[in-house]
Amino acid sequence: MATTVLDPTVPNGAIRRAPWRSPADQPAYARPALLVITVLAATLYAWGIDHSQYHTFYANAARSMTENWKAFFYGSFDPGNSITLDKLPGFLWPQAISARIFGFHPWALTLPQVIEGVAGLLVLYRVVRRWAGVNAALIAGTAFLVTPVVVGLFRTAVEDPLFTLCVLLAAEATQRAAEAGRLRPLVMAGVWVGIGFQSKMLEAWAVLPALALVYLISAPIALRKRLAHLTVSAVVMAAVSCSWMLAVTLTPAKDRPYVDGTTNNSAFSMVVGYNFLNRFSSLGISAASTGSISATQGGGHGGGRHGATGALGAGQNVGGRYGVAQNGGQSGATAPSGPGTAGTGQHPGAGHRGTGGHRRGTQGGFGGASGSDSASAQPFGSASGPRAAGAAQQAAGQQSAAGHGGLQGYGGGGGGWGGDQNGWSKMFGSSLASQTGWLYPLAAIAIACGLWWRRSKPRTDRIRLGFVMWGTWLATYFLVFSAGSVGGHTYYMGVIAVPLAALAGGGMTLLWHAYRAGGRRAWLLPGAVAATAAWGAYIADGFPTYLPWLAPAVGVLAVAAVVLLALARTGVRSGGRLALAGLAASLAAVLFAPSAWAVQVFNPSYGSSGMGSVGPSGGRGGGGGGRGQSNLAAGRMGQSPWGGARGKGTARGGGMGGFGDSGGQLTTQQQKLLDFTTAHRGSAQYVFATTSWSGASPYILAKGAEVLPLGGFTGRVPFPTPRQFQQLVNSGKLKYVLVSGSSRGMGAMFGGNADSTTSTTRITKWVESSCTLVPASAYGGTQSSAADANGSPGPGRGEVGATQTLYQCGSV
């Protein structure tokens, strides 16, 4: 007699299904379709991961965080724990853990973002499925998958991938909490927002209005209890959010790194002033009194005007990181369009002329050589000079090597309509709309119909609450980015792509049901498809040299969709195959154009940039119309300005998500310098000090060397002070100093080191007058080869480079 053995993990009567088979309550195609979408997402995000590149600034901290756990916790820029990043370190913790497991490689830092992207897509699917059903979730997942900025985001080693995943998880937890009025999942939502805060700081809190409204309106419990639950969740959220800042604040300054971006060594100043209030300087908001480095940043309605495609005018804001203008100055005259050109203009705040690129594409740095003769090629700019305008020109067929960009020029971004990446209408400009905004019309129609059609439903109505949540989410972030600084940071838009994709799924489903029901509402579906396709064709038409057939193809699909839907509606077979064909054509019409951008990650001519952009740049009014074969990978310039090995000059698509040299290897001269200082450091705590973080970067990335960078990211941070620096020298903790002209250029962009008041400038002058110059021959260098030691082209005086000089301080 046969004996039946029951699997204790499977309830009686339950049938174990293969992972590719849909649950009983879902259509048979649901699970297979989701698996296909997931595999496609993983492929898009991970394609070319073996060619990843380091983010030149953040990767230093990731390397330092793998060297010791103190650096891991504080997010120290250098292994010696002298100074932190100018951001909270949460987004780097997964990268550092990955590097500890797999070794420090560019792909190991990219891998966590790939995982976060796939997880984010699955969470979005889950949230939309519980809100509007399987079909809506599949459409939302597909829309999310083919949004260009999403593909670029999850290939990029920056803050936003983890932040985007966290706010999605918070939305999912809030959704569960609102269904039954439960406190526990609502508290978990607060925890996820708090973790998102560790990644993106106060931007994570912008999702709170959407989540709070959902629970406040729909939870099936008394109002007093809803308010109490929200209060508890808010307390937990604030505690998780502020935990790192409190830990830093309560730790004595002598026992932790200095907090970058501040004048008072305060984590709160870094978060609230440097990384938040500075973003809204165009609204008249000043961070000067917060103890932060106050760098006036463009954006909003008061930002400076743009240069040409791929340009960075000196008066152009770049979002607080890459070449910030002072006092919202204009970028000056628009430069001729085309690859490698840059907007130039007199900078009213700092009094120097800036350029967006370098003549030879060898070392543009952050916005190029600021007014210097291009032969000197100072990586972060220098004082103005008569040959400033000429420094902006490049040879034909080369990309401007301006800083971390190589993408839409940090604010110029292709001219474009609607102010492009400046002004209140920047979200409709070609640079951002082509990466994010293909579904604007569909989302707007979905919100209006969802709220109006279900206005008489009970307050707990699930469908209406979904439109409340996604609509509030979209409106809040749309307003924040419109008012604040964006610059060339396309990856900021990932959090906008989330509600757009969800509304696309929920909206198409809602409009389809209305279409099937008949009446006047039935015509809103073809109307929404026509409007969205027309907008998509308009965006595509702004890039005339990129797939010139794309806009006509979108138009043909839209016409086919509208005709099929109209015939099915007016014919005798309104619910048959004709209507389904019209629905399929509708989805193709609204998703075809962004898909054409997203798949460019497979094309070495375009690829993706370290700023989260995928596909062509340029656009309407920019004259570029596409990156084409002439563009270089972001950060893989003819010569790395931060002292990495010389770039290969490869096509832009060859790398992904990074900015610096992909190999992380020292040049021969750099290695000789490091060997010399290491051998002669004695008991010194630091191998040597550098007058800019860029000077320290190659040694940290390649070797994890304990190099002391001065001045923080901007060069204006008063750490160490001249007195503290001299104490380090007198106590024997520091013996060698590598003086770099690049530190002055970076400070000038922030209105800093151009004068003699900053600590770094005063220390530099003291070193030059009080310490002993070390000739290149002392460590095996020559006058002809020394210029290569820190990536500086041109002849030198026998020092480390044309603008690099090694000094020995203290007793000789």
DSSP helical segment count: 25
Report the structural category.
mainly alpha
Using only CA atoms, what is the Rg? Answer: 27 Å
The residue-averaged pLDDT reads 77
**Spatial sequence of strands, sheet with the most strands:** 4-3-5-7-6
What is the overall shape? elongated
**How far do the termini sit from each other?**
94 Å
| Overall number of strands | 7
The amount of beta strand, in percent, is under 5%
Q: What's the story with the biggest beta sheet? A: 5 strands, mixed
Task: Point out poorly predicted stretches.
Answer: 1-14, 296-419, 621-662, 742-754, 783-802
Percent helix range:
40-55%
Biased composition (Gly residues): 340-354, 403-414, 613-628, 644-663
Biased composition (Low complexity): 371-402
Protein name: Mannosyltransferase
Domain Putative mannosyltransferase YkcA/B-like C-terminal: 673-769
